[in-house]
Specification:
alpha+beta; Four Helix Bundle (Hemerythrin (Met), subunit A); Nonspecific Lipid-transfer Protein, Chain A; 2 domains; five-stranded mixed β-sheet; 7 strands; globular
Length: 265
């Protein structure tokens, strides 16, 4: 399905209800960790334990909820938020579930089309719901990976998450400075799903990079990575290498190495 989002970017997948998906993904996160040892390490987030992962996910939801309620029109000057964090890590999982309720209340009180400051492309309240969703989903996947499980990710959500990542990545340089090194002499990388017809084309120029609105064809890109939408989502977020067995690639491997060395945030 081809649609156009609120930024004008052409999308080839079905729209997603980000607000309801936040609640569903949080519930899956809670279910994954409720009986787990929160002291366990999280390999995909080096240096973190499950407790720290849960704390981060809930903190992001509560922080973004504060921004939504404040209808911010400029970059926030402080990140001080009353997180209502439990005194003991044993209460973190329940607290994460309650964080989704805090988010739902903020969503209910805020028109998604309300103009707001956002660090990414879409300067509306809906940016924060979409960003919250993929923070939650990816860290739910991190928890499951840490527990030796293969994350199950809805195909439509995964496709939307790839789009959200690639659309906003050029704006991330202020907190992920290595992104500024994503330049090239008009080189391009395509990401193509094998479980649908979604495709994205990223073009690297001498002055920067961006997501091309043209749909890539078989011979468009200098390098192409193929995989399911779920695996491509894990790829762009650095949870899978492009050499993983679940993926296939072709073309300029140096270009792929350069991209993945500098595209994380």
């Amino acid at each position: 399905m081809t649609t156009s989002d609120h930024t004008g970017h052409v999308r080839f997948h079905a729209p997603v209800d980000h607000r309801s998906a936040v609640a569903a993904e949080t519930a899956r996160f809670v279910a994954a960790v409720k009986d787990a040892d929160l002291a366990a390490s999280v390999p995909s987030c080096p240096g973190w334990t499950l407790a720290e992962l849960v704390k981060h996910a809930g903190s992001v939801q509560r922080w973004f909820s504060v921004l939504l309620r404040a209808r911010i029109q400029e970059p926030p000057r402080t990140r001080d938020v009353d997180l209502r964090l439990p005194d003991s890590e044993s209460g973190y999982v329940q607290w994460l579930g309650e964080s989704a309720t805090v988010a739902a209340e903020a969503f209910a009180a805020t028109d998604p089309d309300l103009p707001m400051w956002a660090w990414g492309v879409d300067q509306h309240a809906r940016f924060w719901a979409r960003r919250m969703l993929f923070e939650t989903l990816l860290h739910r996947a991190d928890a499951e990976l840490a527990l030796g499980r293969r994350p199950a990710i809805d195909r439509a959500l995964a496709a939307d998450g790839i789009d959200e990542f690639l659309v906003n990545l050029p704006s991330a340089a202020f907190f992920a400075p290595q992104v500024a090194d994503l330049r090239g002499a008009d080189k391009s990388i395509a990401f193509r799903t094998t479980d649908g017809d979604d495709a994205w084309l990223v073009r690297l120029r001498p002055d920067g990079f961006g997501l091309d609105t043209a749909r890539p064809t078989a011979d468009t890109a200098d390098a192409t990575v193929h995989g399911t939408a779920a695996d491509l989502l894990l790829l762009v977020y650095g949870r899978l290498p492009y050499t993983a067995q679940a993926l296939t690639y072709e073309g300029d491997e140096h270009l792929l190495t350069h991209w993945f060395a500098n595209s994380s945030f």
